[in-house]
């Protein structure tokens, strides 16, 4: 199979769909890989590293899209990229379609087969291709949140861990999944007072055991969310509903009740955000102030630590890329129900139930779509 890797063009996105080691594996398996010139520069992997791995180097994204049967990316295709997709071509990347009807329409009109990293599952019901970036984003949320609390950044001027005689900042994490757990790990390490809210008692018990009582846990009732968000110096949005738009759990009035100079980091912004005041930002302009609260809502947070993120993501995606290439994409999808769960759009039809519901499109069973 001919596999294409274009350079990412989203604002300040430096990751790359395949690292050189992954390219070497695919070449060894008998496949062809074409990489756009400069695609790996942001992670310290120049064109020559890809040449040594066996890849061909293309001068432009247009050349990659025109020749590749399988396009492997990191972020959702931008409009100029969607326009280059075609029927019979497979796109494998993060899509986050539920809050993005424009992208969804473009993919449907292209006729391509679009498989989303974020809805691929495993035998335990987890999201193995979302997990590594959720780990990065969760850890980064505390790093950027601590920075935003600084006075020069518009924050209240708090050191997250405090100092002897001065109490630490209060961190509230809404959601106890992969993002929330990693955020808690970083916040505890910096000495903050940390509360994690979730609707799963089993998960709260795991977190209590994991952190040995250093994290306060709370069942996420309306009262609990309100109380702990209002008390927070730093609030982290870490809620995920696979494939669907994030629920808006924190309303504008609640944000308005937070202290001026407090900070919200909404990691769920890729799926629309769980704070009502959240709107997408970029690494070029990562923050804004709404209701007196500093908001950090960058939709590609892990792109800031591109080398770590690209290698972590590459390790997770490589087995699936190999399956798509070795077996052919249609057979790979039919044989693996977990990979099939990643199929979001196929030949103009929406094949993921949550995406279809949130976008108001008809849902077509993915196996039925493949059979047509």
Structural description of this entry:
With 372 residues, the chain is of the alpha/beta class. It folds into two domains: 2-119 and 306-371, NAD(P)-binding Rossmann-like Domain (Rossmann fold); 131-299, 3-Layer(aba) Sandwich (Rossmann fold), CATH 3.40.50.720. The protein is 37% helix and 16% strand. The chain has 15 helices and 15 strands. It has helices at 20-28, 47-53, 61-67, 79-82, 101-110, 131-148, 178-189, 201-211, 222-231, 252-256, 306-327, 329-335, 337-340, 353-359, 366-371; strands at 2-5, 32-36, 56-58, 70-72, 90-93, 113-116, 170-174, 193-198, 216-219, 234-237, 263-266, 287-290, 293-296, 343-346, 349-350. The strands form two sheets. It has an eight-stranded mixed sheet, sandwiched between helices. α6 packs across α7 (178-189) and α11 (306-327) crosses α12 (329-335). The chain starts with a strand and ends with a helix.
